[in-house]
Structure formats: C-alpha cells, structure tokens
Specification:
The protein has 292 residues and is α/β, with parallel strands linked by helices. The chain is built from eleven helices and ten strands. The protein folds into two domains: 2-22 and 123-289, Rossmann fold, CATH 3.40.50; 25-116, Rossmann fold (3-Layer(aba) Sandwich), CATH 3.40.50.1100. It has a six-stranded mixed beta sheet with strand order 1-2-10-7-8-9, with helices on both faces. The protein has a four-stranded parallel beta sheet with strand order 5-4-3-6, sandwiched between helices.
C-alpha cells in the first residue's frame, strides 16, 4: 500500500503485520511444517523470541500436532500469551537471544522425537519467506529498491531468492537496529560474525549473527546494510500510525525508519516491508501515541 513520506512523495509498504499471526513468519513456519511429512507427527519445536514461535504454534495447530516454543525469559508477554493462545507450549531458557534457547530446543528434539524448525537458517523456512518477495514483484513489478528488516536473515534470503529469479536489477537493502548490526558486521568481514551482545526495542531482530545458510543465499545480492536508531524506530511507528493507521511493532518499523531518516535514497519505486505488528499496547502507546 502507498504511504506518504516526509518529502511530499510516497513509498509502498508490504503489510506483513496483517498476516493471521501478525507477522511474515507464518510463511516460513507453515512451509517448513508442511514439508516435514510423516516426520511432523510427534510434534515440532523451535527457539524464538516471539513471532516465529507464534507462526509455528499456528501452523502446528493447523496440522493437529504438538508445538513447543523455547523462549527467552525476557520475551514480550504479548508474544508469550499469543503462542499459548495458538496451543503452543512455552519453555523459558536464558536471556534475550542467548544460545541457551536453541540448545534447549535441540535437546527436546533429541529427547522427545520432535522435529526442529529453526527460525531462519533452514531451506524450507527461507523458501516460505521467498513468497513475500514473489508477491512484491507481482504487485509492484516496477520496484527498484526493497528495504528489508534483518534478524537472522531468513526473510532477507527469501527476498533475494525471489529477486534473483525474477528481477535481478532490484536493489535489496538490509535494515537493522544500531544495537544489533550483525549484517553490517558480516558484510565487513565477508561472512557471518557473532556479536558479543545485541540490544534494541526491536526484539525480533536481536539475533547475534546472520545464519550460515541465509548468508550463502543473500550474499550474491545484498551489498549494503543500513542502521537505524531507537528514536528513529519510534518515529517510524508513529508515522505509520498517523499517516496510515497501521499498528507496527518496532522490528517491523525499521525499514520505514531507514527511509524516513534518509538512510536510503528515494529515487525510483521503493518498497519497505513491515514485518510484524505484535507489540505490547503499553509500549505502542509510549512510542507511537504519546508523541502523536
């Protein structure tokens, strides 16, 4: 959908916060579960700070199977309760984006025969996220620049796969919070780099490193990453609410933030992806409504 920018023009927004679970993650999770075949009967398990866990729980319910989501102790309560609301079992382990979550998920997969569905570094998850790129290229064949929020790189890799197949001329830019600039680090180093720590209101983008598989898919396409501040993320959330009446979570607003802050030139047709809308109401009021 078109959204006014700050320069009297507009950009196009891909509204993934309107997905049934409020985030793009449903694409990858459902694809991965569907492709498990008989291996899914015992149930599935994952590590997630929120949206992938929601998506896996929703997908598992669709197939009538068990879903376990290992979440950090600091996970947003709105996302914890949403996972449970879709029938998922929540297990807490460690702090935000620590290795403990995946280690616990892997142990449960071994001990209980559950199928592990990683949040981003998996070919079926990437294939599912690629459908977002296919839809953008179908709906906006004149697109010249795509702005994509970056956590572990699953969505970015999927977008790149679609671009390579259909329109290699599209410029794909990764957008990340200043406090979680793992793509910037990977581009500088020539490969995934594990950050010592990450921190941001954009809790869905706090992965410490780009995935190994996602890196292999995105590196032939992505040449640049831009970073946005916490203030700019809040401003973008407010802008989307004021101008389009859209409720977007901090992680979902970073692409818009980069555009509004002038991090990316606006020549041509620019599409920013709003990846999710699962935000605590109190936080949304603080960031988007208090200053509106």
């Amino acid at each position: 959908m078109p959204v006014p920018d700050l320069r009297g023009g507009s950009f196009r927004l891909k509204c993934e916060q309107l997905q049934p679970v409020g985030a793009f993650k449903l694409r990858g999770a459902y694809t991965a579960v569907a492709r498990l075949g008989d291996r899914r009967h015992a149930g599935v398990v994952t590590s997630s700070s929120g949206n992938h866990g929601l998506a896996l729980a929703w997908s598992a319910r669709s197939f009538g199977i068990r879903a376990v989501v290992v979440m950090p102790e600091t996970a947003a309560s709105i996302k914890v309760e949403a996972v449970r609301g879709y029938g998922g079992e929540v297990v807490f382990a460690g702090r935000t984006r620590s290795p403990e979550q995946m280690e616990r998920a892997e142990a449960m997969a071994r001990d209980e025969g559950l199928a592990l569905v990683p949040p981003f570094d998996h070919p079926d998850v990437i294939a599912g996220q690629a459908t977002c790129g296919l839809e953008i290229l179908e709906d906006a064949p004149d697109v010249t620049t795509l702005l994509v929020p970056v956590g572990g790189g699953g969505l970015l890799a999927g977008i790149c796969a679609a671009v390579v197949a259909l329109k290699p001329s599209v410029r794909v830019v990764g957008v990340e919070p200043e406090g979680a600039a793992k793509l910037s680090a990977a581009l500088a180093a020539g490969g995934p780099v594990a950050l010592a720590s990450t921190g941001s209101l954009a809790d869905g983008l706090l992965t410490r490193s780009i995935g190994r598989l996602t890196w292999e898919v995105l590196r032939p396409v992505v040449r640049e990453a831009v970073q946005v501040t916490e203030l700019e993320i809040g401003d973008a959330m407010r802008h989307l609410y004021e101008r389009a009446r859209l409720t977007v979570e901090p992680s979902g607003a970073v692409a818009t933030a980069a555009l509004l802050a002038g991090r990316v030139p606006t020549e041509g047709v620019v599409v920013a992806i709003a990846t999710g809308g699962n935000v605590d109401p109190a936080l949304f009021r603080q960031l988007a409504l208090a200053r509106a």
